[in-house]
Amino acid sequence: MSVPANKNFIAFLNDLFNTNTDFAKAHDESYFDSFRDVQTPKVTVLKCSDSRVQMKSFATTPQNAVFAVRNIGNQLKNNEGSVDFGIRVLKTPFLLIIGHSGCGAIDAKLSGKTTNIDSIDHELANLQLQETNIKNAIIENVNNQVALAMQKYQDLIVRHELIVMGAVYDFKNDFGFGKGRLVLVNINNETNHEKATKNIASKVKNLQFLS
Question: What's the predicted TM-score (pTM) here?
Answer without folding.
Answer: 0.94
